[in-house]
Amino acid sequence: MKNDGRILFFCLTLGWLTPGYAQPAEPVQADFGDAILREWVQPEYPAAARLAKLEGQVTVEFVVEPDGHVSRASVTRTTDERFNAAALAAVQRWVFAAALAEGKPVASGMRVPMVFKLAQMQQRETPLEPPQALLPVPLPVTPPKMTAAPDPDYPAELEERKLPAQVVLEFIVETDGTAHAPKVLWAPHAAFVSEALRALEKYRFEPAHQGPLPLKSGATQGQMDFEYKDVDRAGQLAANHISATDPDRYRDPPRLVVMPDPVYPRDRLLAAETGSASVEFTVTDQGATADVLLLEASQPEFGAALVAAVEAWRFDAALNGNQPVSAKLVVTQKFSPPAKGALNRLVLALQPGGSGVNGATGLDQRLRPVWRAKPVYPQSLLTEKPAGQTVIEFIIDRDGRARLPRVVSASRSEFGWAAATAVNQWVFARPLRGGQPTEVKVSIPFEFAPPKD
């Protein structure tokens, strides 16, 4: 049996062609396709079944390897075990054109019914191919199934802030049941991303299968929940230094859902300069922030950083009964240099005489983003709605967290702070140099377009 339905030949006679029409010179080969039977052998009728005048049917599942030969054949259903050996022996002699994925031969799982009829004994010649109803067909693919999912740890750096979170991830389940190439589709804070990735490393799955063949899955999604228990809405606001100016308007105050940190201005941080800022803002009945107003700041940069962060915050709206209502709040942020941790390590590296931080040259592989929050268009520019640009320099630490963003240039300072606030939430796959985790300094340009509404 010689056939390959994936190939389309264009057969044109030169006499048919007229000027302006091109003649295809090569056959067109598809990039995807199922395995196709090329050489078929009819199973021998078992002597014991023939003497007993038995007929039967055997279902065989098997794998067609990339070179077209059959492996891992097994009987999954039979009407009589006396037919099994003959069915398996025949299938193992078949030859296929392997399945294609992205133009390359790949292994695939197949199923075939093998029918034994006594009328076969009357055949004068062995058929060259099976009847259409008895051709092998691809097995359905079963998706991966989770077998172990340890709970993620709540980030230590957010313990005092009592934020709930949901992190939505996309990843590939490998044939060994582990998750690889994660990408975060949603997260309210970079610290949750880091803990979700650590937990995902411990997840285990029954991999996707096509019959006896384990497969690498396509994009698989999952969600991890971080819930801080035993804290009400008012307690959460207080933990984040937020107070209400109109508490009589509602029964339940807003609840923080997304709260990126204000950027600590790098020059102030390297100089170990402390500071503070206070901002008044409204949480709308949709949970967005509006009317963001700087009340005071010990340095202009501290105020600009806090305004940009508040504009990116999101809440569950305040409730008056079951009705969402707006609420006016005030937040006060203190800026103090960290005494330990990743930020402190980077500050020491960037000090005069420190080890410094190198660029991306010489990394083992290209930087791979896992989560990138988008900059929020500055509210103070919504009336004018200018387009703009900015360049942000930042450091990716050895755990993949983006740290210490700095505005290199900006057509408007508001664009610089909005972009820096977004970058401060980014997470990358751990950068490696010579197989060891390392810090990397990079710069990224941003373009801001006026919002349409």
Q: Which spans of ≥5 residues are poorly predicted at pLDDT below 50? A: 1-25
Q: Helicity level, as a percent range?
A: 10-25%
Strand arrangement, major sheet? 5-4-9-10
Shape: elongated
Distance between the termini: 63 Å
Arithmetic mean pLDDT: 91
**Overall strand count:** 33
Rg estimate, integer Å: 32 Å
The class by helix and strand makeup works out as: alpha+beta
The number of helical segments is: 8
Textual characterization of the structure:
This protein is of the alpha+beta class and 453 residues long. It folds into 4 domains: 7-139, TonB (TolA/TonB C-terminal domain, 2-Layer Sandwich); 145-226, TonB (TolA/TonB C-terminal domain); 233-335, TolA/TonB C-terminal domain, CATH 3.30.2420.10; 341-448, 2-Layer Sandwich (TolA/TonB C-terminal domain), CATH 3.30.2420. Helices cover 15% and strands 36% of the residues. The chain contains 8 helices and 33 strands. A 4-stranded antiparallel beta sheet has the order 5-4-9-10, with helices on one face. It is elongated.
